[in-house]
Amino acid sequence: MVEVTLWGSLAAIAGGNSKVEVEAKDIRELFRKLAEQYPGLEPWIDRGIAVSIDGTIYRDTWSKELPQDAEIFLLPRLAGG
Amino acid sequence: MNFDPRFSGRKFASVGTRPIRPDGVDKVTGRARYGADFNMAGQLVGRVLRSPHAHAIIRKIDTSKAEKLNGVKAVITAADLPDLTDGDAGMYDILDNCMARTKALYDGHAVAAVAAVDARTARQALKLIEVDYEVLPHVTDVDEAMKHTAPVLNDAVFTEGLEQKPVKPSNVAKRTQYGHGDVHQGFAQADFLVERSFKTEQTHQGYIEPHACVASVSSDGTADLWVCTQGHFVYRQHCAQLLGLEASKLRVTSSEIGGGFGGKTHVWAEPVALALSRKAGRPVKLVMTRDEVFRASGPTSATSIDVKIGARKDGTITAAEATLRYTSGPYAGMWAELGAMTAFACYKLDNVKTVGFEVLVNRPKTAAYRAPSAPMAAFAVESAVDELAKEIGIDPVDFRIRNAAQEGTRASYGPVYGPIGIGPTLEAAKHHPHMKAPLQVNQGRGMACGFWFNFGGQTCTDLNIGMDGTVSLAVGTVDVGGSRASLSLVAAEELGIDYSHVKAIVADTSSLGYNDMTDGSRGTFSSSMATISAARNAIKILRDRAAQMWDIPVDDVVWENGQALARGEKYGNLSPLSLKEIAAQSGKTGGPIAGHSELVADGAGVSFATHICDIEVDPETGATRVLRYTVIQDAGKAVHPTYVEGQYQGGAAQGIGWALNEEYIYGKDGRLQNAGFLDYRIPVCSDLPMIDTQILEIPNPNHPYGVRGVGETSIVPPLAAIANAVSNAAGVRMTHIPMSPPRILAAIDAERG
Question: Residue ranges of the Aldehyde oxidase/xanthine dehydrogenase a/b hammerhead domain (chain B) (predicted)?
Answer without folding.
Answer: 29-137
